[in-house]
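I'm stuck. Protein, please.
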Amino acid sequence: MTDYLTRFSCLLDVGTPANVARAFDIYTALMAENGREDPPAEPFLLSLTPEHGASRLCLCDPGTADPQLLITFVTRCAETFKLTGRWGFQWAGVASDPVIDGFSGGAHILDLASGRTLAWMSTGRWLAEGGAR
């Protein structure tokens, strides 16, 4: 049986080391909300790794995760910490076996100040719009 995974790894700068602890609280609350969904979305992992800096959080999938849950976390952090500028990430959709249309990917860009999506694309949509067969 083929498994389908969504893979990503990205950073979010929450501004200050003091905001890091609050970001973990936001994450904990979001995961609790998500756990009440039926079915819950696949969660992502949140960590602080010293090589990326004292205020930059690492957000990655544990093997698969829901990108929308990641976007919700980032927008909540942006609102709480009054973050500005643009933030984005890219993902890969990977099939465990070589199957037709079993591989994909995409990218998403947010305006942190407004929480609005500025642009997004998926490789599947891009191919379809380009007329690929």
